[in-house]
Description:
single chain; 515 residues; alpha/beta; Rossmann fold; GMP Synthetase, Chain A, domain 3; nine-stranded mixed beta sheet; five-stranded parallel beta sheet; 31% helix; 25% strand; binds xanthosine-5'-monophosphate
Amino acid sequence: MVGNEEKVIVLDFGGQYNQLIARCVRECNVYAEVHPYTMSLDEIRKMAPKGIIFTGGPNSVYEDASPHYDRAVLELGIPVLGICYGSQLMAYMLGGKVTTAPVSEYGRTKVTVDTSSKLLHGIDEETDVWMSHTDYIEEVPDGFRITSHSAVCPVAAMEDPIRKLYATQFHPEVTHTREGKKIISNFVYTICGCAGNWKIDSFVDEKIRQIRETVGDRKALCALSGGVDSSVAAVLMSKAIAKNLTCVFVDHGLLRKDEGDQVEAVFGPSGNYDLNFIRVNAADRFYEKLAGVEEPEQKRKIIGEEFIRVFEEEAKKIGAVDYLVQGTIYPDVIESGLGKSAVIKSHHNVGGLPDCVDFQEIIEPLRMLFKDEVRRAGKELGLPDSLVRRQPFPGPGLGVRIVGEVTADKVRMVQEADAIFREEVDRADLKERPGQYFAALSNMRSVGVMGDFRTYDYAVVLRAVNTTDFMTAECCEIPFEVQQTCMRRIINEVKGVNRVMFDLTSKPPGTIELE
Ligand code: XMP
């Protein structure tokens, strides 16, 4: 086994921040995996984790339909940390009292901390934490002591060090809890006794080993878009199963300017990798399916479905392909509403998949990782910096950057405007490049005047955002001169466009893509 012998299990009770908990643990160089609370106690025993974390969740522990867990998990001798709902569950399971709090707490809150606690050691006696609860622990179970409280929450943290049980009402995993990282690190190092020798390279090695074990000498087809995620997935898979992998790159006619040729240059026969690579030029087929369709979710589903149909056809030509490999990452999963969260949009590869897919299984080796972790895995796999640092590009491509109906002519407009915007931003001497920046095409047409003639043309929307996790984002300031140059060039060089706007919206309330 390579480095994954130390594992922390995050038992998911439906909270929003569950992957953030796993990520915080991984940042301490300890491997963490999120599993649903329906995972059996036997499975937990078999995995022999060094620690278990109960996550938050939207329910009330005293309601019958709420998720619970076998109380014996608290008697395994494995340290357990309960967070928010998880803390209430721990209290409830052991005979404490949980009720609706007279005052709910949401957001940044000051708590007082007993730093003689192993969990809270090294924390300021008064510290800011992130609270989000309507219930609270009114009475702790026998054997527990209270180690933190706020003005209105009597049990902000509790513990029974003899049984190695710890709990916080607040969320140490979110950045707004000022010393949250220290708390997680106290849990994994001091309490669970982890050595912390896991790194992203252990993840890569372990994944390669697991894939070899699962796929054996069967064949897999990788949906390669040339973006960071699918490129990392492709190279990882090819390290695992070599020529039993075929990478299929579908040019759906919704790519950025010249992108098809660029992807082929890297992954094709004259590129850097010894891969089975097939390029399918399928623009007409996609445009035909999208003709007359305006609704964003419907467009996403059509593109997602058509992708799969192309892959199925290619798989038939290759023969006996059992697996489809996709570069899905964690934010795709969460925003497609596959957990318990609401559907924001169906990220294709996830919620955008048709119900019936003609592959035995789908492999998503990066499903648990955040973007920056994928980039680190890419570096580890030896992918060039230019590829690893590429800004993300959605699977449905320009299909979700053209508001309303997609036509070949609109694709041309957005491709050209986007190329100009990216070129000017790259040329500008910015302190930091935005996390994502691109042009989109609104479906607004408006009147203008060019060379004494009236125009009635489309408006391009420029968008630049700063983000690290792509779940939240803020508008990135682009110098006014750069905006002006882009506006002039786009209007002069892109036929059919007579207006340029800059999108200032953060996420939330906006999303990064327009659709
Ligand atoms: P949104 O628009 O949801 O985007 O704020 C968040 C991040 O995800 C990218 N994105 C996608 N990536 N398939 C993908 O692989 C998709 O369907 C998809 N939709 C959005 C988006 O570019 C941003 O980086």
